[in-house]
Amino acid sequence: xxxxxxxxxxxxxxxxxxxxxxxxxxxxxxxxxxxxxxxxxxxxxxxxxxxxxxxxxxxxxxxxxxxxxxxxxxxxxxxxxxxxxxxxxxxxxxxxxxxxxxxxxxxxxxxxxxxxxxxxxxxxxxxxxxxxxxxxxxxxxxxxxxxxxxxxxxxxxxxxxxxxxx
Length: 166
Known about the structure:
- The chain is an alpha+beta fold.
- 23% of the residues lie in helices and 42% in strands.
- It is built from three helices and six strands.
- The chain has helices at residues 10-29, 57-68, 147-152, and strands spanning 41-49, 52-55, 72-84, 90-102, 108-122, 125-140.
- A six-stranded mixed beta sheet has the order 2-1-6-5-4-3, covered by helices on one side.
- The chain is globular, with a radius of gyration of 16 Å.
- The termini are far apart.
């Protein structure tokens, strides 16, 4: 977090919260048409998840593949906190998320997590340049990502490799 941050402009806070909601809605509705992620992320996006890290287009494909393994998903965000840098060009943002994933057999995998992100102000508005999610709790069976996703994910030092195909 920026220790020297100032209070967020209400318009910036609103714009960032809407961007988060829009990203989750795009995931849940599987709106992955060409260029869909441009509305939410910078080209150099770096994502850290419990299964590993990915950058740029690989991070976008990993998100698409991850939710596509489920019959349905529902992501709910709350408690968005925006901490802008003094130059107002970047902001550190955190939010809570409740993520419900329905397996094809209708069993559930649910996650309560905390997102931490660095947003950058661009000519098109706020975009996420770095984003990580930390699971606080999980219930149910997590998905198996598969070999193609595994090949693009960098496993952080000391972490377990993602599960391979079953």
